[in-house]
Write a structure and sequence with these properties.
By secondary structure, the protein is of the alpha/beta class. It has 4 helices and 6 strands, in the order E-E-H-E-E-H-E-H-E-H.
Length: 119
C-alpha cells in the first residue's frame, strides 16, 4: 500500500427507497388501503419513502390527508417522504389544500430518486 495515494472522492451510501405506487384514482373508497400501505413503508431500515402518484389522475382530500400523515411519520422516524406528482389535477389539489407547502414534490421518478436529502 502506498502512503502517497490520495482518495479521489467520498463514497456516498446507496439509498434504496421504498416506493409506494398509488392507483389511478384515490378517494374515500380506497384511500385507507393506500394510506396504510404508505405508512407500512416506514420501516426502521428505510430512509426514503417515495409516494408515486405519477399515474394518479384524481386524488381527493382523503388521499392527501394520508400523504400528510405519512409526512408526519417520516419526521417521527427520521426518514424522508418524497411525493411524485405530475402537473395536473393532483398537483392542483395539493396546492389548493396547501399540502404543497409541506410535502417534498417531484415531477417524476428520476427527480425523486436523484434528489439529495431534504434540508
Amino acid at each position: 500500500m502506498q502512503d502517497d495515494v490520495q482518495p479521489v472522492g467520498t463514497i456516498q451510501p446507496l439509498v434504496v427507497p421504498e416506493i409506494v405506487t398509488f392507483p389511478a384514482e384515490v378517494d374515500v373508497t380506497n384511500s385507507d388501503v393506500v394510506g396504510w400501505a404508505l405508512l407500512a413503508a416506514f420501516r426502521p431500515e428505510v430512509t426514503v419513502v417515495i409516494a408515486d402518484l405519477s399515474r394518479t389522475e384524481f386524488c381527493d382530500s382523503t388521499g392527501i390527508r394520508w400523504l400528510m400523515i405519512a409526512s408526519n411519520q417520516a419526521v417521527c422516524t427520521g426518514s424522508e417522504l418524497r411525493v411524485i406528482a405530475r402537473d395536473g389535477a393532483v398537483r392542483r389539489a395539493l396546492h389548493v389544500l396547501g399540502a404543497d407547502q409541506t410535502l417534498a414534490l417531484y415531477p417524476d421518478i428520476q427527480a425523486a430518486l436523484t434528489a439529495g436529502p431534504a434540508g
